[in-house]
Amino acid sequence: MSSSTTTINRSSQVITCKAAVAWGPGKELVMEEVELSPPQPMEIRIKVVCTSLCRSDVTAWQSQLTPIFPRIFGHEASGIVESVGQGVTEFQEGDHVLTLFTGECMTCRHCLSTQSNMCQVLGLERRGVMHSDQKTRFSIKGEPVYHYCAVSSFSEFTVVHSGCAVKVRSDVPLDKLCLLSCGVAAGLGAAWKVADISKQSTVVIFGLGTVGLSVALGAKLRGASHIIGVDTNSDKFEKARLFGITDLINPTDHEEPIHQVIKRKTNGGADYAFECVGDTGTVTTALLSCCDGWGLTVTLGVPKVEPEVKAHYGLLLSGRTLKGSLIGGWKPKSDIPKLVDMYIRKEIPIDQFITHDLQFADINKAFELMIGGKCLRCVIHMPN
User: Fold this and answer.
1) What is the model's pLDDT at position 63?
2) What is the mean pLDDT of residues 251-268?
3) What phi and psi values does residue 133 have, to the nearest 5 degrees?
4) Domain Alcohol dehydrogenase-like N-terminal spans what residues (predicted)?
5) What percent of the chain is modeled with pLDDT above 70?
6) Residue 338 lies in a domain
7) Model pLDDT for residues 298-330, shown as the tens digit of each residue
8) Which of 136, 135, 137, 132 is closest to 38 using CA atoms?
9) 130-146: pLDDT as tens digits
10) Contact between 179 and 350 (Cβ < 8 Å)
């Protein structure tokens, strides 16, 4: 008697799974059954283990500027590779990974440069489709459901380009590491890589969410002597001190312009200012809060409205600099594993940024908490 074994090639199969779908700007997410295509060449399909809500998810969900719906948001996630597409050699089934909202192809001009992390092939995708063929992998009853940042982690499974994921050690908790795929990495990199904060310097941070407090942590670890946090929500202040903030300002408590308050506290202006709000008016305020000669402003936020920055040319003529920062300037596939190692060595306390753990079914609660200023990061746990 003979027997035979049939091997199922999961990488060629369409699967169905649950996803939290946004049907319109600001509309509550709806748990839907979606079809997810198999990974195409150089793509991987991931079983999402944990994902967290980032402020940019909320901004894009609320935005009326370029609405793309129906859509699956989420980009800050950890998971396990379920299947791999043709040509993928870097990953195999069972690998633990973090998703990356901006990738690294390793071969383009920017990837080969030490001056940039703006990959020309796998850079930030804003149109709701995949990099390779400008199509979606999600659908409902044959109709497309669009991606967010080519990740879409508010789903039990997702498909990403292999250049938009990074392999991590399997002995590190994925519910903590997901924060390194965006928020915490963005703040630390802005402090260390983009600004290169020096010892005994003065720093002012506008916006005390996860990104702003990651900047504060980075400044503290670099030895900054004076770290000022600015936020209109005083409920954040007690938590902020844990990350190294030495002085806290609520602009609503002052009648004079806040940049004048800061200049008085810093003897003429801060060495470094960070805009972590997502407001171009705050970018101008941050520039005004810097000192002449060498004051550096770094902007990290994603604005919902009025994307143009307005500033008098004299601010720049006097020696100030304005720089942008995407995921902290890190080359994501190359650099994020170093942050994972730092977490393992207990050099960066990722756990302190997690204020809530929620189940996938309660994802709308995460939106409520963030909009209400009641959380730093809500980690959303997928069903086993």
Assistant:
1) 83
2) 96
3) -130, 5
4) 41-130
5) 97
6) no
7) 999 888 788 899 999 999 999 999 999 999 999
8) 137
9) 998 999 999 999 999 99
10) yes
The span from the CA of 262 to the CA of 205, in Å, is 11
353 in the same domain as 292: no
- Between CA 266 and CA 233, with CA 221 as vertex, the angle to 5 degrees is 60
pTM: 0.94
Give domain status of residue 341, yes or no.
no
CB-CB contact of 66 with 185 (8 Å) = no
Whether 28 and 173 share a structural domain: yes
Among candidate residues 197, 219, 199, the one with its CA nearest the CA of residue 208: 219
pLDDT above 50 for 2: no
CA–CA separation, 59 and 55 (whole Å):
6
Asked if residue 325 lies in contact with residue 186, where contact means CB atoms within 8 angstroms, the answer is yes
Average pLDDT score over residue span 64-68: 79
Looking at the fold, whether 232 and 120 belong to one and the same domain comes out as no
Domain that holds residue 26: 12-181+349-381
373: left (phi over 0), alpha (psi -120 to 50) or beta: left
Residue 23 sits in the same domain as residue 168? yes
CA dihedral sign of residues 320, 216, 214, 114: positive
Instruction: For residues 21 and 163, state if they share a domain.
Output: yes
Mean per-residue pLDDT of the chain: 94
Give the CATH number for residue 29.
Answer: 3.90.180.10
Query: From CA 71, how far away is CA 182, in angstroms rounded?
Result: 20
Q: Assess if residue 339 is contained within a domain.
A: no
- pLDDT given for residue 305 in this prediction: 80
> pLDDT at position 1, please?
39
Q: Which residue has the tokens 């967290």?
A: 52
Q: In 3-state terms, what secondary structure has residue 379?
A: strand
Give the total number of structural domains in the chain.
2
* 363 and 215 fall within a common domain: no
